[in-house]
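Practice problem: predict the structure.
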Amino acid sequence: MEYLSFELPIQELMDQYQTCSLVGEESGVDVKLACSQIEDKIIEKKKEIYGNLTPWQRVQLSRHPDRPYTLDYINGMVDKGSFLELHGDRNFADDPAMIGGLATLDGQKVMIIGTQKGRTTKERQHRRFGMPNPEGYRKALRLMKLAEKFRIPVITLVDTPGAYPGLEAEERGQGEAIARNIFEMTMLKTPIFTYIIGEGASGGALGIGVGNKVYMLENTWYTVIAPESCSSILWRNWDHKEDAANALNLTPKDALREKFIDGIIEEPLGGAHYDPETTYLNLKASILQNIKAFSKFTGKELETQRQDKFIAMGQFKG
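Answer:
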């Protein structure tokens, strides 16, 4: 387990617990009481730290290297052996930063699409740290259209610092690809449910984020720009990233208050990486609940509900 800077008090207690356990094993002395007391302190410290996270700390937690990624959620949620990954945009190439395919959840057919980061240095480079190229968004749209044809619900999992900003991406129409996805998703005649599972930044997130329902996991963020980039624009450096995080209202509670999302998916104490299986179950339960709730909607009703939802964003009564 890797620990972030604000988690160091927890690491110290965990080290104490491991030392206590080791002493008991090697010496044969009964140290159960001492270890139990340290366990209680660990739980108390976790509640103290994770119950008072700043927006910047929540951003850091969303990027934790042990946090589950899209493929982890897919493997943890779908029926065993049911995921069939589909590749290519039928135009230029396959984008490893955007994955998707057919699967079943408790027998329910779904099309799952999401941005994918990498664990190792080589894999991170291969997947461009979860930043899709235009062909990634076009692949996602192709899969959505395929799902619409067979009236299969679409599940999108968002974890991206933004669309890839490279020259080749711009040459192949990055802005147009994202805009096309947003336009087409507003009119898709099958249910779309979006979940922010990590980072949700800018148009890169919105390119697969126009859903009938949009949810955020507890330790994620969702806003128009990353705090570091915002700090670079306003202050010409990254030194004010914490101030930017505070001003951007990027936490799940902020997004729910402003009605940008429809709910928050609870994570285990400390974050999804402490207990991935429980997080998978929480996410799966929400997906199945939404599929059931929208199962009787007609294609036109789904389209209208989705459009009304996003048109209403940003409206204020004086």
